[in-house]
Amino acid sequence: MTRIVAVIVSLSVFGYPRGESSPRMSPEPYMRVNPIVQQIVAAISEERIAENLKKLESFETRHTLSDPTHPTRGIGAARTWIFEQLRSYSPRLQVSFDTHFVKKQGQRLVRDVELRNVVAVLPGTRQPERRIVICAHYDSLAIVRGPDGQVDWTQTEVFAPGVTDNGSGTAAVLELARVLSQYEFEKTLVFIAFAGEEQGLVGSTLYAQRARQEGQIIEAVLNNDIIGTEVAGDGASANRVVWVFSEDPADSPSRQLARYVKRVGELYVPAMRVELIFRQDRFGRGGDHIPFNHEGYAAVRLTTPSENFAHQHSATDTFANASPAYTTLVTRINAAVAASLALAPKPPVVATERGMPLLGRGRSGYAAHLRWRHENPEPDLAGYVVVMRATTAPDWEREIFVGPVNEYVLEGVSIDAVTFGVKAVDREGNESLVAAYVNPPRPRATFQTDEPRARP
């Protein structure tokens, strides 16, 4: 076991030497951009995304309960076209329907339905068991209200073009499958168009539950939902910003994925700003990443900050009211993140098998002693990066490249006032997700007592 001790004097609680106004970043190669990832990002085509949006609009409705037998209209025609598009991109893509027979239930599932997710798998070369999921829902909805003002959920055949919600996410998934399938990656990439989102996240729930039952290792889920508008209903525009939602707590796997999206997305798409929203989804609403959260997977939602509620779930959610240029920028962020993760080493393990963090106070009792495990390290592994931040900071504030070791000591740094993490990096600069040291909750104590009886 290789051990490194860093002796740092006059540290603040952040671990910065006195007098420094900002962290000193290491010149190690992990800070470089990967030219392969740059090529992938550049290959994303706005023209193709626009074509996909127009085609999805042409089905008139993609309601989950619309007629599945019509050759050019409805959910059946749409899923067949998505299937054929995915199959045309590369012979290496394994395309299939993930089919479920769902019973009538609740308000929105007004009859039994055969639900089909469309799945395309690009197998990895070195770590095929580890999966990166890129997804969106392809079903659409137009709300019809009765004379009493209540939603009539039986109206399943009305015009529901759903270009922004969520043709935009579907078009992104298709374009990502087209471009990424021309490359080889260490990990497996999975592209999914879910059905049944508008009926309560049905398709994604059934997929995520089966993935957990099968013991699938899903390292990240990038859910794209409503990435097609750049002007909100009140006229506000944020056409160079994308929101990324991630569930609490502060160092959940999903929160680490969100931070990764910001770091890598802004590195490869500098025209865009990734704004982290520390909430599972928009207030009182949901998306297809949530079932993966429920199954313990790291999953985030990418969405526009410029929603136009007048067009959502209506006949006016059309191509004329969408922005292919904005969808393209968000798709490029997806491409950078998915490619980087699929090329990167697996994250180190920073806890024991019982879940206790491998973090202590060192021999002096006043240090931060970090340890980690990395079984079967990749042959191109360059080493590890220790990351640090104040407990109240939203993102990592300092990085230290420590090389190919599996422990590191920061003398004079309190583990009580700083949050730590470790990530792996290969010689091409591809970084894993950060594995954060999480303090497990202290169990609630119960004590047996023998209280004296009350005196009469």
From TrEMBL:
SUPFAM superfamilies linked? Zn-dependent exopeptidases
Q: Name one GO biological process term.
A: proteolysis
Q: For the Peptidase M28 domain, which residue ranges apply?
A: 117-336
Give this protein's Gene Ontology molecular function annotations: metalloexopeptidase activity
Record InterPro entries: M28_fam, Peptidase_M28
What's the protein called, per UniProt? Peptidase M28
Provide the species name: uncultured Acidobacteriota bacterium
